[in-house]
Amino acid sequence: MDRMPRLYVQIFLVGLLGFASGGEIHAQSAAQLNAVDTPNDSGESISLSWVISDDQVVKSTSKIIVYRKNPGENDFKEIKQLDPLSRTFKDGDAVHEGLEYFYKISLLAKDARTIFETQPFGPVVARAQWFNTSKVSCFVFSLYTIFIVLLFMFWTRRGREFYLRPLPGVRAIEEAVGRATEMGRVCLYCPGISQIDDIATLASISILSRVAEVTAQYGTRIVVPNYDPVVYSVCDEVVKTAYIKVGRPEAHRPEDVYYLTGRQFAYASGVAGLIAREKPAANFFLGWFMAESLVLTESGVMSGAVQIGGTDAITQIPFFIVTCDYTLIGEELYAAGAYMANDRKLLGGLKGQDYVKLGIMVILVVLFLLRVFGVVGVFNLLTMRG
Amino acid sequence: MTMFFRRVVPFLIVLIVGFLSFAFYFVPRMKDVWNILTDWSLILNSCALFVGFISMIRSYWKKAMTKDDPNRWYSWVTLASVAAMTFVGLSGGITEGTLFNKLFTHMMIPLESTMFSLLAFFMASAAFRSFRLKNVSAGLLLLAAMIVMLAQVPLGQQIWSAIPDISAWIMDYPNVAAQRAILIGIAIGTVATAIKIILGLDRSVFSGFGNK
């Protein structure tokens, strides 16, 4: 008998407690916040993510506010307001490596009333990583390429012979310079409009050193207008050294290698005017070009010059093919320097590049077949994330 | 000693900076160091611009003073323009509203736009020369070019409703396939060329002596 009233009281109190705290118990599971150190960065950001599991809360939320408590402070400060559909946030504002941060988020209704606020999450510490794991595929590919290229260079130094298909554009360079000598005209060499750190520019300068040697041997002038001042400095040195190497330093004219301008179409205008006035017999457009390429090459066509073009800019290759007598497409520009040097090591490196491409083709076929048969996980290994 | 500074020092600089550049791409912790090196390169570029400016003045001055050259007046125009813009920029500033800014906006920009507009005519003349029915491959090029050009204007769809779809197929499949093939070759060539220069296997960029 005594047990029954006590049981009723307990049930009543539990029900009353549940009714009174019904909203809180309900809201405790409305949203869960998580914060971690952003992977693959230099320790300057923390990544937040949250899940709002209550549909009623999702519908009522009109704004999400992110708060952060900095090290040494007691209060949370607002750092970002987000739209209600946001579920992630990357905090990179004055986050320092090694310090402890705390975060919480508030879900606000339209009338700015706080619907729900998460418990503070932390401490979270931002750390700098030593290796960007999202770039593993790129790293492996780079090492593979370097290894194969160096291996073939090593083999050619040991005396192994490899066949390389001839490049008509490279063979035509000496003929073009000879033509210019016979006609008593100059050779024009444009190393492109990119900067010195561009591989196409470096390849062009490598070719320029050989072309300058040929012009020095033939006693022909070579004019090199430059777009970039650093490239001008290198070209000047390369041409001067080429003349010294051939034993004709007195034939070198310093004013023939100069900085023209750093504006794209001003450069095109200057070179077009140079072509119209000097009427060079041989034009070399080797490097990285953009829209001005057609202005340059068409001006050369109108002057009747032999033109050899080469670029790795995909969009300009068709223009060079149409307007130039010989075109070096893409990697042929990089290979031309090795061809002209006739150095066994460099030619071996070219062969290595071909085998790298062969390896890539095999990998692509294998991945294609795996994808066809429904194996998709392997494909993700090749992608770079973040 | 001269050879040491002309050969060894540039090679060492390229080797160290090249290796660090490769490493920094994969090491997020070194981002601050990389930012500092990038700032240094900007400073070096500015100094090189000064050197280039002097070389340009020297080159055009020599041409302008050559009395036998009938084109020396162009060199005088260039030198006068350089002097005028330099004086105006240094004396009045280069911000918006200054004479320098007005000269740039009202002279330089229209001149560049004029050069850019010449592309339309050059493209027409290049297309006229190249789209000739000489053999099978030239015929394919001609056909593809016609379809793609017609698809750019409403007339193409009026002639045949499938032209835009065929054009889209040409641009999305054979065109992209060819571009990707060239890009793969370029990517491999870039790595190989870079490693040859960084390791000093191809020194023609340094001094023009090549590998000798």
Task: Please provide the count of β strands of chain A.
Answer: 14
Helix content of chain A: 40-55%
Percent in strands of chain B: under 5%
Q: What form of chain B results from the Cα inertia axes?
A: extended
Most strands sheet of chain A: 6 strands, parallel
Oligomer classification: heterodimer
Largest β sheet strand count, sense and barrel closure of chain B: none
- Averaged pLDDT of chain B: 88
Structural class of chain B: mainly alpha
Radius of gyration of chain A: 34 Å
Overall, the morphology of chain A is elongated
Low-confidence stretches of chain B: 208-212
Strand-pairing-aware structural class of chain A? alpha/beta
SSE pattern of chain B:
HHHHHHHH
Largest interface: A-B, 90 and 65 residues
The whole-angstrom Rg of chain B is 26 Å
Properties at a glance:
heterodimer, A: 386 residues, alpha/beta, 6-stranded parallel sheet, 5-stranded antiparallel sheet, 47% helix, B: 212 residues, mainly alpha, 8 helices, 0% strand, extended
